[in-house]
Design a protein that fits this description.
The protein is mostly helical and 274 residues long. The chain is built from ten helices and four strands; from the N terminus they run E-E-E-E-H-H-H-H-H-H-H-H-H-H. Among the domains are: 48 residues, no CATH class; 102 residues, Tetratricopeptide repeat domain (Serine Threonine Protein Phosphatase 5, Tetratricopeptide repeat). A two-stranded antiparallel ribbon has the order 1-2. The chain has a two-stranded antiparallel sheet with strand order 3-4. The protein is rod-shaped and about 130 Å long.
């Protein structure tokens, strides 16, 4: 039998196996795809199946496909983290702002919330210990002071607190609704302010506060038609409502008189133009 060099070690060999290294000298075929294999092949070059049998080796994905799977896996991880974050946040909600901080910062405020000189360094009031109505009124006064001073940051900071106190009121009257409407106008919530005006007029037909809110919102929105309608409604009820002796009218007398004067001048101007 003619000896041929072993493909594995190069030693002259004959038969089916090399006598020096034991490598197969017989041509082989893949058991899976029947492709011709070299004597030294350990895996099929076509399907990846091990020459000795077993399952084929999974082909390696192209670079583009691998990148796509990596991105998809990363997104899954991010979404999972977001879900965990939301669940933990619901289970342990953030603490509400400490209402006492407002009182501490308003140590110079007088009983009604007006800024006054500090007398002897009195202890700052803790509004968290006040009734909901006392808390709401104090916050409202603080916001109005900030608005008059052009302090927009303070208005935006304390308005959510004041509206939160409003929702906790045991009983809500026209005066509280009027204050809440003013707060909503301060932050541009005109639909919320108009809804409060509607509630005031539904519970107290002809109440001047309802028309004042409507007129103020219309003026802020540059809606002349709705502003004039609100002013006409206001003046048509002004005499009867002034005689009703409502306590909230007394408290807001300067504002009511100012709105009435503005409405009268607007009505006179409209008649003159006719």
């Amino acid at each position: 039998m003619t000896a041929t060099p072993c493909p594995a070690c190069g030693h002259p060999a004959s038969g089916k196996f090399c006598s020096a290294c034991g490598a197969s000298l017989v041509a082989r075929t893949c058991a899976g795809c029947r492709a011709d294999l070299s004597p030294r092949a350990r895996y099929c070059h076509r399907c990846g199946r091990p020459v000795g049998g077993g399952a084929p080796v999974a082909p390696r994905l192209p670079a583009r496909e691998r990148s796509a799977w990596i991105v998809a896996g990363s997104l899954c991880v991010v979404l999972l983290l977001l879900i965990v974050f939301k669940v933990l946040r619901q289970a342990h909600p953030a603490a509400a702002p400490e209402m006492a901080n407002t009182g501490a910062e308003s140590a110079r405020e007088g009983p009604a919330g007006d800024v006054a000189g500090s007398a002897g360094g009195a202890t700052p009031p803790d509004i968290s210990q006040m009734t909901p109505r006392e808390r709401f009124d104090r916050l409202f006064n603080r916001i109005m002071q900030a608005a008059q001073q052009g302090d927009t940051a303070q208005v935006l900071r304390f308005t959510p607190m004041a509206l939160g106190a409003y929702t906790q009121l045991d009983s809500i009257d026209a005066d509280a609704r009027y204050h809440a409407a003013v707060l909503r106008m301060q932050v541009g919530d005109f639909p919320g302010a108009l809804a409060l005006a509607d509630t005031i007029l539904k519970r107290n037909p002809g109440h001047l506060f309802g028309y004042m809110i409507r007129g103020s919102v219309a003026e802020l929105q540059n809606d002349t038609t709705r502003r004039r309608q609100a002013e006409r409604d206001f003046r048509s009820h002004f005499t009867a409502e002034s005689a009703a002796g409502r306590p909230e009218y007394k408290e807001h007398e300067p504002v009511i008189e100012d709105f009435n004067q503005h409405a009268a001048e607007s009505d006179t101007g409209a008649k003159t133009r006719r």
